[in-house]
Amino acid sequence: MDGNHSKSAKAEGSLTATPTGGAGTKVGLSDPVV
């Protein structure tokens, strides 16, 4: 559970940090915003 939680948090942070990296939903939201 600890490992999974860390992965989830890291995935969210990565998506938010780099929306153009690999975030479909985030990219769409960041695309128009940027």
TrEMBL record:
It comes from the Bacteria. Residues 1-34 are annotated as: Disordered. This is Uncharacterized protein.
